[in-house]
Specification:
This protein is α+β, with helices and mostly antiparallel strands. The protein has one domain (about 5-215). It has helices at about 5-20, 55-65, 80-95, 185-190, 190-195, and strands at about 30-40, 45-55, 100, 105, 115-120, 125-140, 140-145, 155-160, 165, 175-180, 210-215. Strands 1, 2, 5, 6, 8 and 9 form a six-stranded mixed β-sheet that branches. The termini are far apart.
């Protein structure tokens, strides 16, 4: 399957170099607004994550270009099904940009339990919904999720309103949301050569990670 996110980033980079050189110094190339839910089972174990990603209008337009729709300017879930699959296939290679840890130990996910795209006709943007279940449910008092792109081609930000929530969690559990610090002017305009230098930009995006922590007494 075509990696739509990677392809779009390459196209954006090309356009930056060839058409608008000044843009080539600005990372990232795709913007995503995230809402996340931490899922619990009845026995108090954490079973996984449910996420919603709203893409920027430029990437949304690229993803829907050439798609046939019964109604002009509108796309149904069925009409977007192939695009959703291509996105999820691509995201698997990147661990869905979702990194869950307990005591600094990473947790693995199963393949997405369900996923679909919806199109907002008013804003003309796509939102990708998907559920990630852990390979093994976990019982823990502390748990952390980070959502970010190590290469910083994709900028993830948590939604302003209700960015994260707990679903069926014990009443005593608390949710803590930590947003990344504002990107400095210097980092925001790093040249493409920085990201193309071997090792120079290794895991650069980690400093812009969105962190969701759960603490239970």
């Amino acid at each position: 399957m075509i990696n739509l996110l990677l392809m779009f980033c390459r196209i954006a980079m090309f356009c930056g170099f060839v058409l608008l050189p000044a843009i080539a110094h600005a990372h990232p190339h795709v913007w995503v607004t995230v809402k996340a839910e931490v899922l619990y089972a009845r026995d108090g174990s954490i079973t996984g994550m449910r996420e919603s990603w709203t893409f920027d209008d430029m990437y949304s337009a690229y993803s829907t270009q050439g798609l046939e729709a019964k109604t002009a300017g509108q796309f149904s879930r069925d009409e977007l099904a192939s695009v959703a699959k291509e996105n999820m296939d691509a995201l698997k290679e990147a661990d869905y940009y979702t990194f869950a840890t307990v005591s600094r130990k990473g947790l693995g996910f199963k393949d997405p339990a369900d996923y679909y795209l919806e199109f907002d006709t008013k804003e003309a943007v796509l939102t990708l919904h998907f559920t990630l279940l852990f390979k093994t449910p976990i019982k823990t008092k502390e748990f952390q999720i980070e959502i970010y792109d190590p290469d910083f081609f994709i900028d993830f930000s948590l939604a302003e309103n209700r960015p994260a929530s707990l679903v069926d969690a014990p009443a005593s559990c608390q949710l803590i949301v930590m947003r990344p610090e504002e990107t400095s002017a210097q980092n925001d305009r790093l040249p493409e050569s920085f990201f193309q230098s071997p090792g120079a930009a290794l895991n650069f995006g980690a400093q812009f990670a969105n962190k969701i922590s759960v603490k239970c007494p």
